[in-house]
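**User:**
Make up any protein.

**Assistant:**
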Amino acid sequence: MTNFLDQLPKHIREIAEQVNVLAPEEVLTTPKVRFLDTRQQSLHTIVRKCTPDDVRVLKDAAAKWLAEMPQSADSLFKPLVNVRWSRVSFGCSALDRCTGGGVVARGITELCGAAGVGKTQLLLQLCLCVQLPRELGGLGKGVAYICTESAFPARRLLQMSKACEKRHPQMELNFLGNIFVENHIEAETLLACVLNRIPRLMQQHGIGLIIIDSVAAIFRLYTDYLERARHMRRLADALLSYADKYNCAVVCVNQVASRDGQDEIPCLGLQWAHLGRTRLRVSRVPKQHRMGDQLITVRKLEILYSPETPNDFAEFLITAEGVVNVPEPPVSSPPAKMRRL
């Protein structure tokens, strides 16, 4: 069977190869702006400037190829595994094993935990991993990051992005250029952003991950709980529609609270808990691991509930390079037996 790219004109084929979109299904699902964006391309490899008409010819050819390709009967009952309900890797094998491959691109994933346990560090690593191709655990898409508590940690993201570039030297990705950040401290502006600006961003750019850090900072200030429930429902409905329509992952951070010395529980009660699909909790473990001349506190990611994976937990470390596995202790060899003379 003839390859899809072989039947295209040379300059159209080069456009698809420059952004590593080689399959007709990927051509149809890739936003037009990605083909037109030359920030990731070397000046020595660009043969001619890509125009909107070139992108239209490429997408039309992909649609015609799929329409003329014969399909088997059983394939009509199978969803596209590489498009529907994908997962975004944490970039840490221990966390990926615990969660079944990472954050699922279906429903809302809640990440809760006390202040300073490493929730934002996990989010920054997800922002980098989602931009990787599917074979490396990503979606090849960008990120919409909404901050509600403090300023976006741009310097920390820069530090982690440099480490990610060293781990994947073959990938020429503009990690920082594919993360779109907004700050909102009130519910009205947050809802306006999610309901109005996020849809335009999803259409103009390939967004594979939406992050709200955090929902508790906005909705804990409400005194009218009926109004709070309505606003949280509007927010969740919009996020769920984006996850289903654009096959993107949605992660919302939640705070925890304790009363009278009891265990910490996530905020916002059942009104918010019923809107999420998966709840993950991050906490510190009372032990440390020595790396070089530093003692690093061990953290734990725990699955509280999820319809895809059983309750489980995994330990990890936060280093200058990002989130990594806890190294295995060296295996000590048993002492040699002494021979009796």
Notes: Confidence is low (pLDDT under 50) at residues 40-47, 79-84. Residues 24 and 64 are 9 Å apart (CA to CA). The first strand starts at residue 87 and ends at 88. The two ends are 76 Å apart (CA to CA).
